[in-house]
Amino acid sequence: MMQSAYEQSSVRSNFFVVWNEFVKNMKFLMAYPIIFVFWAVFPIFWFIPFILQGQAFVGGLESASFAQIAGTEDYISFIVIGAVLNSYVNTLLYGMGESIRREAVQGTLDYVFAAPCNKAYVLIGKALSESVSSTIFAVSQLTISVLLFGVTFTLEVMFPVFFIVILLILGLYGLSLVLAAVSLMYKQSHDVSETIGYFFYIFSPVRYPIESLPSWAQIIGKLIPLTYALIIVRSIMLLGTSLTEMYWEIFALLIIDAVLIAAGFYMFNWMEEKTKRSGTISHH
Amino acid sequence: MSLKMCVMLSLVVNKSGEVFSIQTVNLTKRFAKKRHRGVFGFLRRNQLDRDVIEKNGVTVALNKVNIKICPGELFGLLGPNGSGKTTMIKCLSTILIPDEGTVRVNGFDAQKETSMVRASLGMVVGGERTLYWKLTARDNLMYFASLYKMQRAHAKRRVDELLEMFHLSDRADERLEDYSTGMRQKVTIARALLHDPPILLLDEPTLGLDPGFSRQIRRQIRELSEKHGKTVLLTTHYMDEADQLCDRVAFINSGNIVAVDTPNRLKARVKEKEIVEVTVYSPPADIEERIRSLLPDAEVVKLILGDEDKGNPSRIKIIGGAAEEHVGTVIDALRQKNVRIGSLNVGVPTLEDVFIKLTGAKLTEGGMQ
Amino acid sequence: MEKNNKDYRLREVKCPSGFTWANVKAELRAIWEANVKAWKIDFAYPVSFVRQLISPVVFMIPYLLYGLVLIGGTYSENLAQLVGTGDVVAFIFTGYIMMGFIGTAVWAMGFSMRREQWFGTLEAIYVTPASRLGQVLGMALHSTVHQGMGTLIQAVFIYVTFGLGLNMSGILPALLIFALMLFALYGFGIVIAAVSMILKEGWIVSDSFYSIMTILSPVAYPLTVLPTLAQQASAIFPTAPALIGMRTFLIYDYVPEVVGNVFLHLLALGIVWIVFGVFVFHLTDKYVRKKGILKKY
Ligand SMILES: Nc1ncnc2c1ncn2[C@@H]1O[C@H](COP(=O)(O)OP(=O)(O)OP(=O)(O)O)[C@@H](O)[C@H]1O
Ligand SMILES: [Mg+2]
User: Fold this and answer.
1) Residue with the nearest Cα to atom 17 of ligand 1?
2) Which residue range(s) make up the domain with B7?
3) What sign does the dihedral A216-A222-A223-A226 (CA atoms) show?
4) Judgement on whether residues B256 and B321 belong to the same structural domain of the protein
5) Three-state SS string across C8-76, please?
6) ipTM
7) Is A198 in contact with C58 (Cβ distance < 8 A)?
8) Does B300 lie in the same domain as B190?
């Protein structure tokens, strides 16, 4: 009896840790409305050149040769979906890395780590708040694209899309845990997340269909969770494919998620032990 | 000579017909109080800094400060946290533009002849990162030499000389990130001396250094003043540092200069037989009130909280009246409250006593390290 | 304790100032040393240094691959109708050079003062008699060369993978246009450097300007696909006219979408931006010293 009561309270206290961390991070975001507005609107500007480029090269809103490789003639929707999903990478990877780095700089990290709770829950709280805010940003960017560029899609695709986005977020959690671990050791965590960002941008079909890459590059692309998320979401939204038809890609995404999360937790615990011993947490 | 002429001259000329190294006239600086940015910022309230006059959201960091420092003088500016010391240094070094009043450094007006003022002084800020940690000591010094518009060959010689002087020669080509805090502080001081300026502004130069290093740095400062004839303005909140080092000391509190004099003459303002200092452990909060009510003729009764974990017990200071007659009363009062007494002292005023007597405010917790 | 034995006389200080040759030389040397310092600090972060070198390639690849997929080859019928040439590889490459240098002005120069704030050295720099503009210009020098190296890598990459056909006889006038553009861009960079010193979220300003300027520069499309208002706005930034001018000299069959004297246009922009930049820089210099926010970040 005692045992189960204890376990119950520990589950609750863990939940409380996650929740507190979530509220703290959301408050931080709300304290900087400019940053909020920036992420909700500005990523649009990063892909506008691609839409203009399409118009200059093709001369219309549809491209037959684009359809031969990408499956859809509607290159604008293709670009918009790529950009919006990619913004999860930006906000989650940078956001988590930043958030951990910020605590290290402010010197609160030692304090957080000294608290008698599992650090991973603190990180889950962070990840949760980052993904809620990322979703707010994504919805905002999508809405603006619908209004500005005439992108259209039906509302019922939103449920399967949301499901895939959650799978993407899970993979990114795992990756940001790895990043957090690295940033505890290696002081330029920004470097690492930026480099990973480069990889994603080049090897995933963010701006172009993956088939246009050389085959060796396609293999690298197939190791990135974003690649599958992009392929599945584009199929659902642009080609009307149903979720069940995409079982193979979904399966692959699940496997990658599992590997990344396991690696993330393992590395984080390991690095944490190591830094605790060498005492370099807050020397950033 | 017309009256106007006379007033003008008296601003810049001292009694022996010479000009002051540093002179401020009615120097005033106010800061708008920072409001927390952000949507929910208004919910939070900054804790009021009780040492500074605050009205209508304005902090008066310097209030009509008039100071004259002679060439070659080692002048100390002593005050508690937030009293305006750093603000003063920044106004003198042209980093801050004052709201009112004038600043003259080495005979140049800080607002009109800014770059000559900058060329006339070297500045050291203690306890902060003010160098490129990714560069070596030599690179740092050479870089700043170019900013002081020194010629390359001259700069090279000077840098070698300074590295030698601070015993850094053998580690001069290591990056500063691998240096200790004290060594970095030496590089900071060396940087201030690069262009051999007649005036040095030192803002808490020994902050965060261990006693050994602090002593070294203080010796060096003394030497710069005595051997090299530099004018030194030094801020500190270690009263012993000011006492040992300075020719003259100014007390600053809440942006006001309360007194300027030599340490000895300042201390003479408090009679030896006026002071009782008791060190106590875990005093109750109302002890100050209690003793004050028992000693109506004491001018000041002040409880200075220490940090017992760090071996710094709290102290009760009683200034004014007949000290020897107070002793019994104080011991009785403490006994009654079961307070453990560490030591009891009568006499020998310190600068801190003078400061407390003049302002009623305490100077600092603990003394110099 | 009291000292009466000191000689109470002010000491003369020697420091070049005003419009003298010695002073100009000293300021130029300060710029050069700021540039050297920037290199040294860059080498201390090797990962980031290399990443910056290859980033021109990384960010150009999407424009290229996407462009090629769009038209199923390297020749665009529609582009040929708009500007005479249908060679998208040459078109995108020339455009992308520009984008990299916009980044130089906006990020490297724009953050030069901020960087000193991060290092904690800004106040120490402020108490020296050298002009603070030297920091910005030194950084400009450094990052122009750094970016230039990246651009070379980019040129080699694109030559090897896609084959790049440029009219090399037009290289000299193109370089002249480029140099003129850099001046105007430097003026712009000074403005950003000044503004980012007083704004807490300076990177948002930089990123906004970067995005707006890339859209207004015809990096991967002719200017004429932009709305008329945007086309007019692009004339106040040097990149659009410079790009059109350089393409005229470098790309075979290219017919500029906007006609006008590129050299005069850039010269005027250069003067205006530099004067404006220095003006804004001095204003913020005063402002920052009044408010005492030199050290905040
Ligand atoms: N840039 C600023 N903006 C707003 N207020 C400021 C600014 N700089 C200083 N102040 C305020 O002016 C007052 C004097 O500060 P100053 O830094 O001069 O104190 P100080 O004597 O150097 O203290 P310390 O011993 O802690 O260094 C403080 O109340 C401080 O909060
Ligand atoms: Mg201070």
Assistant:
1) B86
2) 3-36+48-266
3) positive
4) no
5) CCCCCCCCCCCCCHHHHHHHHHHHHHHHHHHHHHHHCCHHHHHHHHHHHHHHHHHHHHHHHHHHCCCEC
6) 0.90
7) yes
8) no
